[in-house]
Amino acid sequence: MSALRFPNLPPSEPQGCDLLAQERAKTTFSVNDLSVYLYGEEHLDRQQKFLELIENEPAFDKSDRYFLGRTERFAAALKKDHALVKLSQEQKWTPEEFTQADLLIDTPGPFGLHRGMFMPTLASQGNEEQQEKFLKPALRYEIIGCYAQTELGHGSNVQGIETTATYIPETNEFEIHTPTLTACKWWIGGLGKAANHAVVMARLITAGKDHGPHAFVVPIRSMEDHTLLPGVMAGDIGPKFGYNTTDNGTIWFDHYRVPHISLLAKYSSVKPGSGEYVKPPNAKLSYGTMVLVRATLVGYARIALSKAATIAVRYSAVRQQFVDKDSPKKVNGKIIETPVLDYSMQQYRLFPIIAAAYACHFTSKEMMRLYYLNIKNMASGNFSLLADVHASSSGLKSLTTTIATASIEECRRACGGHGFSSFSGLPLMLQDYSPNVTWEGDNYMITQQTGRYLFKSFRELVAKRSSGKFSASSITNPTLAYLNTYLDNPNLKCPATTPAQFHNPEIQLAAYGHRAAHLVSEIVHALDVEKRSWNSMLVDIYNASVAHCELILVQNFILGIRGDMPQPEGISAPVLSPAAKEALTDLSDLFALHMIHKQPGQFLASGYVDAKQVSMMGKAIMDVMENKIRPNAIGFVDAFAHPDYYLNSALGRFDGKVYEAYTEMATREPINQTEVIEGYEKYIKPFTNPEGKKGKTIQARL
Amino acid sequence: MSALRFPNLPPSEPQGCDLLAQERAKTTFSVNDLSVYLYGEEHLDRQQKFLELIENEPAFDKSDRYFLGRTERFAAALKKDHALVKLSQEQKWTPEEFTQADLLIDTPGPFGLHRGMFMPTLASQGNEEQQEKFLKPALRYEIIGCYAQTELGHGSNVQGIETTATYIPETNEFEIHTPTLTACKWWIGGLGKAANHAVVMARLITAGKDHGPHAFVVPIRSMEDHTLLPGVMAGDIGPKFGYNTTDNGTIWFDHYRVPHISLLAKYSSVKPGSGEYVKPPNAKLSYGTMVLVRATLVGYARIALSKAATIAVRYSAVRQQFVDKDSPKKVNGKIIETPVLDYSMQQYRLFPIIAAAYACHFTSKEMMRLYYLNIKNMASGNFSLLADVHASSSGLKSLTTTIATASIEECRRACGGHGFSSFSGLPLMLQDYSPNVTWEGDNYMITQQTGRYLFKSFRELVAKRSSGKFSASSITNPTLAYLNTYLDNPNLKCPATTPAQFHNPEIQLAAYGHRAAHLVSEIVHALDVEKRSWNSMLVDIYNASVAHCELILVQNFILGIRGDMPQPEGISAPVLSPAAKEALTDLSDLFALHMIHKQPGQFLASGYVDAKQVSMMGKAIMDVMENKIRPNAIGFVDAFAHPDYYLNSALGRFDGKVYEAYTEMATREPINQTEVIEGYEKYIKPFTNPEGKKGKTIQARL
């Protein structure tokens, strides 16, 4: 039993549960209707079903999560991954159902990359024989794999990896080898301790010729007893900022021989014996998968944003601090301190995060639709969507994961001191979410892909416009559309003269389009006319990608509310109630205007708006936050439908019993299990009572 | 012995040590001279001496730091605090020397608040008898104390705390009591397990009258055996984002009686028997201490910035990625990948952080000088400096700790994936530094203090100017000076027409002064003329405080280089070599121009600069970064003189042997101590080899 016991007293009045009840009574729309609009009934029902299966199962218990050290957390994650696979086999879950359950448990475990990268790589790059031999047992977890690409010395520059796989015609084998210390594979999730196979990216060398990185599937640990196979050395890379429940690993190979079937050969292959290299067809095909991964990450950004916002917004409605002298709050005639959510600064910090979550929701939906449409198009040889979708997905991955990471931290700080406590749920969330800004393309680096596409589009459009054969009505691509509008009138001015006019979505879209096109135009001028180097323009290129993607987010938010967002084939558009539509429109306005108001520089420089208009936007924002969004704030976060089990936060509880939960969690802190700390005799007593005086002798001194 | 062994191979060429040697050969100034200019010889000699004393002492060893869980880390910190006190007693260190040694060890321990808050409070608020009774044994660590102010429900609003201390005339005692759950003290460093006394802030109640929060020194744990005293319940508040080596604690009191001497009575007191309350004199006196604490935090921001920058800049000189096609690097005629420090984006991310460290260095020096000058002035009844110094110190605490936290994270990400590894040193640094944005005044909230002063100054100045009795030459206060310049000509335009002209410090200062004054003027108009509420203006007020404090940072950087910064009395100005002065001027230019270029909105809105000029600044920045700062980047961070023991980072090593150190650290990861993880039998084998097949039987399957 804990040596720490709290008094049997309630928190000071008013109680958190009463405050949240009042908030919920103010909501102008049906929270459940909005949840259904976002996720669909089926998803919500399944969440409820999974919650019942999972919540009380010891392997999925979260109550000790914040107390465990790395070794214990990894052990618990291995146990959880085992239990979840067993459960999924019993329940016959689809991969989508598995993911939904796994997200609720919210612990990245050692089998995560087996599902996330190993099996998908086998499926997309393995030939039939390889799928039979490797993928089938992998689906049954007889083979547990990982994806070994990054090396100690090479991450972003995949083409620069050093590990080699040399074809040996005599034995029809490949010899995998690590030539330098920097060639050791590094960061490989699941490799440290769990995996018995790896997909290894290595430079394929046949007859002395280097064909660059190719994927090989290789056994690394004994199927008998899990020991490392001869010629392989592997282990865990140690503690990290987050993701400590996953065994990110390192591996190196000492002239390690694998059979010919190891080279994943759906697209490129080596002819047995002769060693002749067969090239892959269109390299563009692999871009499709990248789009899918990035759309998924935009969806995860929505989850992170909505989770952090739920915690911070609920706690801000419960936490009171100071009396606002200009408009003091009263309950039963008695002045109370003001809930911090009533302070305009708190609203300015938190409400745009709620809005960003919705923007990411609609954007990830649209990215998924485009992904499937593009896949279908490509199958019939139509690559028209690919470049735009790929470029936007790079920039959107970068922008949304940057926003989400910053927002988790903002939510953490907006909880005051208590956001620093692990029990708020926000520190671990920040730590586990953080790799998103680096993996799947470093957030600065990959914006160059977006930039390259924007500049190419701009140059081609300018050429077409001056060719005499141009017709604006032929433009279907949204990027070309806003670039063309800009070229029609680079000096366009915003017509708004009152704060209210900034609620017009056409004005919002024009501001974002004009600013993005202006940046693109300036950069193309610098590169092509001033002949500045690409390297010297990287900051501007990053800004152009951000501008392009902020426009997409604003656009998808607007379309997502209108309900006229294009739907995947065969799926009918969900219906949004008029009350919820009105409420979401407030959020959409805030989303568009807040980003301009907070960082107006590029908008001002584009010439579309002036300083007076930015100041008017400030008034529009303050007005919509105080009068429209504030009453619905709790409704907006409730609609995300994150159960308490998922949040695992004392501050973000649905019932508002913040302080009761928080103090209860503290009693479970391991060092509270004894009243006197173990180190007392050795490290404190020698100062405070060196002679071991007893009773009154020593107490009397003070 | 670790089950993980790395190959006996060097990293790929070129080697990190060679790259750093080349960098150092390019430095245009003497690194040692610059270090001496920053810290003085005495400080540097002492650092060397302390390093020798500390580095090889087991209690101060850092090699296991990143592997330990919270319980073990706290135990190690208690051991360290004990050993450091013993050492300081042997060495007869002054408090300043103690702090310097403690900073090198860089582990906030359970005795930290005893030194940082408990003893200073006794010294400043205790009368002579109390100093004799409590402070003297505290200096010998017979009493170990903490400072219990914050409660579960009240942090920022100290006036709202709920704990009461009721005077009982019959026994001449105070009864300390916790009336609600939210009144439990919370976050109290050192209270969780270590302290046997506490300074408790409680509402003093005499004869039914509430006199608000007062400080009481109370025993909480037995001097005999460290058990909690009857009527007191205390413990640790559990795991946190950082600071897990400190036992932040909670305490509550059940009608706990303490003697009359417990009320710290230097300023206010209660007459024994009658219970008559004696008011404190001028409340302003306590503002002085706040200025000191905040100046110290600005100094710590410098330490954090310089430490993070050292790691990221050194690693960015060693880490190579991609070949820059426009200007490929060669070594011995062979093209190598480009060190990431050569990419303009990396420079734009990291060089302003180096610059910010220097700006904070000079600013904290100047704040210290003003603190002592103000103390001297106040002693002779002169309060003329107090308001300005107090207001600026609030805003500077907020601004510099916000910059430092963001910069640690930026440095972490700028190390690519490896910044996510604990071995980079950056994750723990971020976690332990983070409370700075919340404690000693939440970074958003306290800017209201700065704002209030700025608006008051502006109103008074406007009134004076229109009174007819105004002479500009009478202005000595720097805030009034820039406000007055603005009022002289609110439509002033920047005269620069070329990028080079922005290197003129007068233009830089004018831009910052004009922007800050413009914001102040707009807010005063909104409050006084448009009658907008204070709450509705909080975002603008925050921006005004930032603008004011950015001006101060720019100003102090410029003065700090010129060598004409005012010196504390009796201290002669240190001398900066011409080469170092030139190099620091480049950094100062970058500091001033980068902030405008990155967030130009308010500068544009103020009318002082236009978009074309901001674009010119961009060119000036890119030029100074590539041609001036890049060659000196390693010199600038070396001059911070942070030893490897302090950095505790595989990436930031002085010798550049990054990958050797990094892999060596991984071998020490606890889960690498056995080849096969403990959970294998239970959680992996049931999938991979459920029937326990042996040897060829199972290997043959693949």
UniProtKB/TrEMBL annotation, chains A, B:
Residues 504-688 form the Acyl-CoA oxidase C-terminal domain. Residues 31-144 form the Acyl-coenzyme A oxidase N-terminal domain. It is found in: Peroxisome. Residues 287-454 form the Acyl-CoA oxidase C-alpha1 domain. Keywords: ATP-binding, FAD, Fatty acid metabolism, Flavoprotein, Lipid metabolism, Nucleotide-binding, Oxidoreductase, Peroxisome. GO terms for cellular component: peroxisome. SUPFAM superfamilies: Acyl-CoA dehydrogenase C-terminal domain-like (SSF47203), Acyl-CoA dehydrogenase NM domain-like (SSF56645). The active site is at E440. It catalyses: a 2,3-saturated acyl-CoA + O2 = a (2E)-enoyl-CoA + H2O2. Belongs to the acyl-CoA oxidase family. This is Acyl-coenzyme A oxidase.
